[in-house]
Every structure is written in structure tokens, then in C-alpha cells.
Amino acid sequence: MADQETQGFHPGHNPWAVALTVTIATFMEVMDTSIANVALPHIAGGLSAGQDESTWVLTSYLVSNAVVLPMSAWLSEKFGRKCFYMSCVALFTASSFLCGLAPSLGMLVLFRVIQGIGGGGLGPSEQAILADTFPESKRGMAFAVYGMAVVLAPAIGPTLGGWITDNYSWRWIFYVNVPFGLLSLFLTNFMVQDPPHMVKAKKESRHHPIDFTGLTLIAVGLGTPDEPDAQSGRKRRHFGSDHLDRAPTADPSGLSCAEHFRI
């Protein structure tokens, strides 16, 4: 039914302009998965933190990003795809600015979590927007553009992050997202519109409650601090001992999540 309604939907702007618009924020979001890698020593030194502790700048973003992914479809139906996408861009942009202002490692990790929450919904939303904007005969080309952005962004990230850190400051690897985020918000507001089936889904969304149990298990399972255990293992030579034999019991929420969705 959604495909039939989409076939009769004609966006008010050139589909390729829409594709470029929604790719801007997604490119920045994917690039942020790797742009901070080479800046970790500078971040650790600037915030008086240890090298091991600074890795949470990376893992916190990736974990919160993954937690939001399963919720994207439900949130798009609940609030409308355009509204949800713009909210994600706004949250990602604002948190990027706050990351640049962070006075301590703890605050930076907190802002990175918020940044990941905002960025987590961008990829799924863009793919859905492309599918509704382009006719079926051109969707392959549209998704090829999306694929290029997703592949190039993490490859460019370390190089760009290193150049910015060496020539300016590690804080600018986060500030650089702000102008592109504002540009994305401005263009999305005028270029993107929800197709009829999304407008209908928004009206009917109150009849489709979200699975809070499953999402809670996913959030707890992914958010379980395994990285400190790994760092501790490297320091205390736990690897190769029975320490790892007990590892599967350290995250019962992950097993519960698997059993919940299996049922």
C-alpha cells in the first residue's frame, strides 16, 4: 500500500536536490564515527584525562547511535518523518557545538552520547526519504549516492580530523558540524515533505505502541561498559585466564534481549 501511494507522490522540488539536502547531515554524522580517532591524544591532554579514558569519546557515540536505530521507524510514524529528521539534525548540531565547549572528559562523553542519539536516526530517515522521493526506476542511483557518502565519510574522517587538530584545535572537529547542520536544517525545511502514507501513518501511530521492554534491553545491553573491562584486562593480564570465561555472564541483558525477540 505504501508503494502504491508513493508512486502517486511527486515532491515539489528536484529529487536530486532533495537527495543532496538529506545527504549533508548524514555525511557529517557518519564522518563523526572516525573523525575523533586521531585526536584522542590531544583530547586526553587537553582535558587532563588518561589515554584509556579518552576512548569513551568514540564508544559512547557509537553505542548511543546504535540504540536509536531500532526506534527510528516508530518515531518517524509518531512525529512525522520530516519532523523527526529535522529534530535529529538539530540535536546533532547542538550537541556538536556543546562537544566543542566541553570543559571535562565527563561532559564531552555526555555530549557525545547526545550527539549519537541525534545522529542515530539520520541514516534510516534519509534512506526512507530517498525511497519516497525517487521513482522506482531511479532509486538505485539515489541509493548509490547514499552509499558513496557512507563509504567516503569514515575514510575522510581521520585525515580531516588530523589536519584540523594539527592546525587549529581538537575542539574544531566538533565545531565543523555546526554550519553544515544549520545548512541542512534550512534546506530540509524547504525541500523535504512527507508523502501521503506518512501523513496517514502519523495519524494512526497512536494505535502502534512501541516495545519499551525490547528497547530497554537493547539500550542496557549495548550500553553495558565492556570497554573498561577490556582496558582492565590489558593492564592486569586477564586475557588467557578464566576471567574471559565469566564474560558472557556479565551482560545478561544481551541474552534477555535475544530471548525476548526470539519469542
UniProtKB/TrEMBL annotation:
<dbReference type="InterPro" id="IPR036259">
    <property type="entry name" value="MFS_trans_sf"/>
</dbReference>
<feature type="domain" description="Major facilitator superfamily (MFS) profile">
    <location>
        <begin position="18"/>
        <end position="263"/>
    </location>
</feature>
<feature type="transmembrane region" description="Helical">
    <location>
        <begin position="143"/>
        <end position="164"/>
    </location>
</feature>
<feature type="transmembrane region" description="Helical">
    <location>
        <begin position="56"/>
        <end position="76"/>
    </location>
</feature>
<dbReference type="InterPro" id="IPR005829">
    <property type="entry name" value="Sugar_transporter_CS"/>
</dbReference>
<feature type="region of interest" description="Disordered">
    <location>
        <begin position="225"/>
        <end position="256"/>
    </location>
</feature>
<keyword id="KW-1003">Cell membrane</keyword>
<dbReference type="Pfam" id="PF07690">
    <property type="entry name" value="MFS_1"/>
</dbReference>
<dbReference type="GO" id="GO:0022857">
    <property type="term" value="F:transmembrane transporter activity"/>
</dbReference>
<feature type="transmembrane region" description="Helical">
    <location>
        <begin position="170"/>
        <end position="192"/>
    </location>
</feature>
<keyword id="KW-0812">Transmembrane</keyword>
<dbReference type="InterPro" id="IPR004638">
    <property type="entry name" value="EmrB-like"/>
</dbReference>
<protein>
    <submittedName>
        <fullName>Drug resistance transporter</fullName>
    </submittedName>
</protein>
<keyword id="KW-0813">Transport</keyword>
<feature type="compositionally biased region" description="Basic and acidic residues">
    <location>
        <begin position="239"/>
        <end position="248"/>
    </location>
</feature>
<keyword id="KW-0472">Membrane</keyword>
<dbReference type="InterPro" id="IPR011701">
    <property type="entry name" value="MFS"/>
</dbReference>
<dbReference type="InterPro" id="IPR020846">
    <property type="entry name" value="MFS_dom"/>
</dbReference>
<keyword id="KW-1133">Transmembrane helix</keyword>
<feature type="transmembrane region" description="Helical">
    <location>
        <begin position="83"/>
        <end position="103"/>
    </location>
</feature>
<dbReference type="GO" id="GO:0005886">
    <property type="term" value="C:plasma membrane"/>
</dbReference>
